[in-house]
Amino acid sequence: MNNQSAGIFITFEGGDGAGKSTQAARLAAALEFRGYTVLRTREPGGTPVGEKLRSLVLDHGNGEIDAHTEALIFAASRAAHATQVIRPALARGDVVLTDRYIDSSVAYQGAGRDLGQDAVRSLNEWATSGLQPHLTVLLDVDPELGRRRRTAGQAAEDRLESEADAFHTRIRNAFLDLAAARPGSYLVLPADLPVDELARQILARVDTLLPDPAAAAGEHAAPQPAAHSVATDGSAL
Fold this sequence. Notes:
By secondary structure, this protein is an alpha/beta fold. It has helices at residues 20-34, 48-58, 67-92, 102-112, 117-127, 143-150, 165-181, 195-207, 213-217; strands at residues 8-13, 38-42, 95-99, 135-140, 186-190.
């Protein structure tokens, strides 16, 4: 691991509709209440250029985007995110929570687009200079359930969400294979558990990674609640 920092880096992964954003928000609120400084962010995005790339690769109407171009766009956004946002926050000692990271590219472009998982991982490890999370929370969602959640209230699906269920099944299997290969670095939970139960289990696992907030702030310093977490594009997440 090439974190070289005092902070804690936690990623949330899983198929579309797994509830990653909800659980990241719940964890951020719980940690802030205890006095930790939390940076909550997302991919693609997290920086001005990353948000533009997010729109380019996820919105409909941008013309054909072939698989290799798609993988490179995600890697470019991630490179900016890791360099400009994540590493500085970890150096400050923050807890960084990101909705998606390298595993998403390995699953979506490596397996889903059949570009090869090793090739996509190598590209993204180069783009991030080897920055790896301390923990990955994988919310395992059945593709059919994920689609029902995404389209509830007739919400429109983005370019990747609207792919066929077979594409999302390949992604699900890839995520599970990644977690099985390194079980100590993952917390795998069924996405259909009650929201409160998911939040409880995630917090319990994260507790094993965290320093005492007073110690992190300095000896004898009283923990102070941090400000509400805000997306790195300036909007609430």
